[in-house]
Design a protein that fits this description.
- It is a single chain.
- Helix 2 packs antiparallel against helix 3, helix 3 packs across helix 4 and helix 4 runs antiparallel to helix 5.
- It is globular, with a radius of gyration of 22 Å.
- The strands form 5 sheets. A 5-stranded mixed sheet has the order 9-15-14-11-12, with no helix packed on it. Strands 1-2-5-4 form a 4-stranded antiparallel sheet, with no helix packed on it.
- The model has no long low-confidence stretch (mean pLDDT about 90).
- The relative contact order is 0.12.
- It has 3 domains: about 100 residues, Immunoglobulin-like; about 110 residues, no CATH class; about 140 residues, no CATH class.
- The protein is an alpha+beta fold.
- It has 6 helices and 19 strands.
Length: about 350
C-alpha cells in the first residue's frame, strides 16, 4: 500500500501453488471497514483480477489497484474463493492515512518494470530501481546506515532493544527515478526525493544467501535466544568455528541425529523470520522474529490495527500463552511491532529453551 499526493495505490502479489488452479478460477470480492471491530461486509460485485494484472511470471501474478479517496484510512478486506478447491482466503490490508510519513510515493521496484519488490530486503548486487510515482524524472537521494541493530531482548526483560535510537548516516548517493542500479554494501537504506522532509522509503541490503544464514558467524549470532552468554562467547572466539559449532550441537542434544533435526528446524525458523519480519533490521532480531523462532507459528492471531495478539494453545509441553505486540512507527517503517514484555514470561521462556536444547521442541 502506497500513499502519495491524493492517491492510494495497492500493489498485490498472488502466488498460485496449485497446478489445477488458474487465475480465472479465483472469485475475488472486497470490502472497506472502519476497523477490525466491524462486521465484514463485502461489495456485491466481484473483481476481474485480469483487468488489474501488471505481470505474470510462472505461478506469480502481480496486480495494481487504485483506491478511491473516500476509502483512504479504512481497512481493506479482500476475499478470494478458489472455485477448484472450494477454499476461501481473507487478506486484511490497513490503509493508513499517515503512511506518507514513511512512503512519499517512492517504490523500490524491479529494474525494468514498475513492479515493487514484495519484501523489505534486496540482495547485494541485485538489480533494482527506485520510482518516484509523483515525479518520474526526479532525482532521489539514498542514505546508508551501517548500524548493527541489537537483537531483541528476552520477553521478560524490563527493557527492549526494539526501539530505534539515534543512528548516524554512513554515506549518501543519488539516482534518477526509474534508473536501474545495484548496491554492493549491506545495511539500512533510506530514500527521499525531498531532503527537507521526513518522507521516504526504507529497505535493507543483505548478502546472499539471506534470508538464510551465510556463514558461521551468522549461524552463531542467531543462537543468542538459545544459548548462554558464555556459550555464545566461546563459539564466537573459537579458531575453528565449524568444529566448535558442530561440537556444541552434539554436546547439548546428546545425539548427532537429534542435532541435525534441531539445527534444521531452528535455522528454518530463523530464515522464515528474516523473510517475514525484516523491517529496519533483520527479521530474526525483531520481537516477532524472536517469538516465532522459539514458539513457532501461533494458533491464532488477533489484530486491531495498532496491535497484534499471538495465541499459542496449551500443548503437552507448554501451557497456553499469549504475546501482545504494539505497532511502533518510525520514518523507516509502519510495520514494526514491539512486544509488551512481562516478568511472568520468564518461566515459560526457560521451559521452551530447555525443550529446544533437549531436542524436544515441537
Amino acid at each position: 500500500m502506497i500513499n502519495y499526493q491524493d492517491k492510494t495505490l495497492l500493489f498485490l502479489k498472488l502466488t498460485i501453488n496449485d497446478d489445477r488452479t488458474k487465475i480465472e478460477d479465483l472469485v475475488t470480492r472486497y470490502g472497506f471497514l472502519n476497523g477490525y471491530a466491524d462486521v465484514i461486509t463485502m461489495a456485491p460485485d466481484t473483481i476481474d483480477l485480469t483487468e488489474f494484472r501488471q505481470h505474470t511470471e510462472l505461478n506469480n501474478h502481480y496486480f495494481r489497484f487504485e483506491i478511491a479517496n473516500e476509502n483512504k484510512g479504512k481497512l481493506l478486506i479482500i476475499k478470494i474463493l478458489n472455485k477448484v478447491s472450494g477454499n476461501d482466503f481473507y487478506f486484511d490490508i490497513p490503509s493508513d492515512p499517515d503512511a506518507k510519513i514513511v512512503n512519499s510515493g517512492i517504490v523500490v521496484k524491479w529494474p525494468e518494470q514498475p513492479i515493487p519488490f514484495y519484501r523489505n530486503y534486496i540482495l547485494k548486487d541485485e538489480p533494482l530501481g527506485l520510482l518516484n510515482l509523483g515525479s518520474a524524472d526526479s532525482t532521489l537521494f539514498v542514505y546508508r546506515y551501517n548500524t548493527d541493530f541489537k537483537v531483541a531482548d528476552a520477553p521478560f526483560s524490563p527493557s527492549s532493544a526494539s526501539v530505534i535510537k539515534s543512528i548516524i548516516i554512513d554515506s549518501v548517493f543519488s539516482v534518477k527515478s526509474g534508473e536501474s542500479f545495484s548496491i554492493s554494501k549491506s545495511g539500512l537504506y533510506f530514500v527521499q526525493s525531498d531532503t527537507a522532509s521526513a518522507n521516504g522509503t526504507a529497505f535493507r541490503i543483505e548478502s546472499k544467501p539471506f534470508p538464510k544464514q551465510g556463514n558461521y558467524d551468522e549461524l552463531i549470532s542467531s543462537l543468542t535466544y538459545f544459548t548462554t552468554r558464555s556459550e555464545l562467547d566461546k563459539l564466537h572466539s573459537a579458531k575453528d568455528k565449524k568444529k566448535a559449532f558442530d561440537t556444541y550441537w552434539i554436546e547439548i542434544t546428546k545425539s548427532s541425529e537429534r542435532a541435525r533435526k534441531v539445527i534444521k528446524e531452528y535455522y528454518g525458523r530463523v530464515s522464515l523470520a528474516n523473510h517475514l519480519f525484516t523491517t529496519y533490521k533483520q527479521g530474526w532480531k525483531t520481537d516477532k522474529g524472536m517469538i516465532y523462532i522459539i514458539f513457532g507459528t501461533p494458533d491464532e492471531v488477533l489484530k486491531d490495527g495498532e496491535r497484534e495478539e499471538w495465541i499459542f494453545e496449551r500443548t503437552n509441553q507448554l501451557p497456553r500463552i499469549n504475546f501482545t505486540f504494539i505497532k511502533s512507527k518510525s520514518i523507516f517503517t509502519q510495520d514494526h511491532f514491539v512486544l509488551l514484555r512481562k516478568s511472568s514470561y520468564q518461566q515459560i521462556w526457560y521451559k521452551a529453551i530447555d525443550l529446544w536444547r533437549k531436542g524436544q521442541m515441537q
